[in-house]
Amino acid sequence: MENMSIPGSAPPVCNDSVDFYSLTSGNHTNLNCTLPPEFPFYADLYIILPVIYSVICAVGLTGNTAVIYVILKAPKMKTVTNMFILNLAIADDLFTLVLPINIAEHLLHYWPFGEVLCKVILSIDHYNIFSSIYFLTVMSIDRYLVVLATVRSKRMPYRTYRAAKIISLCVWILVILIVMPFTVFAGVYINPNDERKSCVLSFPSPESLWFKASRIYTLILGFAIPVSTICILYTMMLYKLRNMRLNSNAKALDKAKKKVTIMVFIVLAVCLFCWTPFHLSTIVALTTDLRTTPLLIGISYFITSLSYANSCLNPFLYAFLDDSFRKAFKKMLECRPA
After folding, report:
1. Whether the Cβ atoms of residue 159 and residue 142 lie closer than 8 Å to each other
2. Which residues have C-beta within 8 Å of that of residue 199, sequence separation ≥ 6?
3. Total domain count, the chain
4. How many angstroms separate the Cα of 15 from the Cα of each of 12, 34, 36, 291?
5. What is the DSSP string of 316-337?
6. CATH label of the domain that carries residue 84
7. Does some domain include residue 338?
């Protein structure tokens, strides 16, 4: 994610150590590192990684495209929540569309696509880090406001489909601004030893300081702030639901509370399961100095694949688990007589 180097090939090494974050992103920055010639090539990774990325790409494209199609085509699906789900699916679809380029680079062992595409792909790669969690944060805020209005028996005239469109556009703009520094520093680096090209982040001097700053920047804006916000909102939401006085429809409300509790657990568990290892690797990168080993490389690619997998899991979490979505999707697939 961090850059587009050569996953599966010998990772960069500086003073016999390797940055764990660079490995977990499957890429590296240009920190004047060189590739040790004695580092063995792992044939298993060469085969397994393209297969994993291909599965993620196929499932992600199918699931997210189905979400987009149903929401756009089914009139009853045009709700505020589904507008956020639609934008989340578009962001995930955009990322899965560029995975074939990651696969091609992995198989070719160099970057053949030029400077412009390097900036585009690296930007989309970083966009994936921020987009899902930010749209999830917006959905959490929306759900909290709905629960708050329900508890207070108030209407929400400002919560409209048009307002959801405007908020979604603002999220896109915000994430683009956050990712812009990475776009500026992205470029094709030519290794002076073998003239092999890599799509990397080339920071100005002092490179190590810029590198650490970029890790902290990503950790705070891409994980710490949004996840903290989500946790606080869901905690407050569950607290208000538990303390809500039940009326004559007590059973129905109690069932709804259980559904919300389960959904909250699934959303938070899957999001944290997929992204926490990736961001924890940043802390490891900033506090330790690890040597390159087969075990470390295996862990790094597992963490990368796990974070990538979040893009294909989102459709099932936010759409396919919803009864109204399933009904709309089945209706779209019905064969109508001429």
Report:
1. yes
2. 3, 4, 5, 27, 105, 111, 113, 118, 121, 122, 186, 187, 188, 189
3. 1
4. 10, 9, 11, 9
5. IIIIITSHHHHHHHHHHH----
6. 1.20.1070.10
7. no
Centroid of chain to Cα 302? 15
- Structural domain contains residue 137: yes
Q: Are strands 186-190 and 197-201 parallel, antiparallel or unpaired?
A: antiparallel
187: helix, coil or strand?
Answer: strand
State which residues form the domain around 68. Answer: 20-333
The span from the CA of 93 to the CA of 135, in Å, is 14
Phi, psi of 153, rounded to the nearest 5 degrees: 55, 45
Name the band, by pLDDT with cuts 50, 70 and 90, for residue 67. confident
Q: pLDDT of 191-241, one tens digit each?
A: 888 778 888 888 888 888 888 898 899 999 999 999 999 889 888 887 777
Interatomic CA distance for residues 281 and 277, integer angstroms: 6
- What's the whole-model pTM score? 0.80
Structure-token pair, residue 210: 């810029």
Q: Is residue 201 part of a domain?
A: yes
Whole-number Å distance between alpha carbons of 306 and 55: 12
Q: How confident is the model at residue 316 (pLDDT cuts 50, 70, 90)?
A: confident
Angle, CA of 171, 126 and 80, to the nearest 5°: 25
Q: Which two tokens mark 197?
A: 């090209």
> CA–CA separation, 286 vs 284, rounded Å?
5
Two structure tokens written together for 13? 């090494």
The percent of residues in the chain predicted with pLDDT above 90, rounded, is 15
Distance between CA atoms of residues 200 and 188, nearest Å = 6
H helices, E strands: number in the chain? 10, 2
Rounded Cα gap, residues 138 and 131, in angstroms = 11
Would 111 be classed as within a structural domain? yes
Element (H, E) at 104: helix 80-108
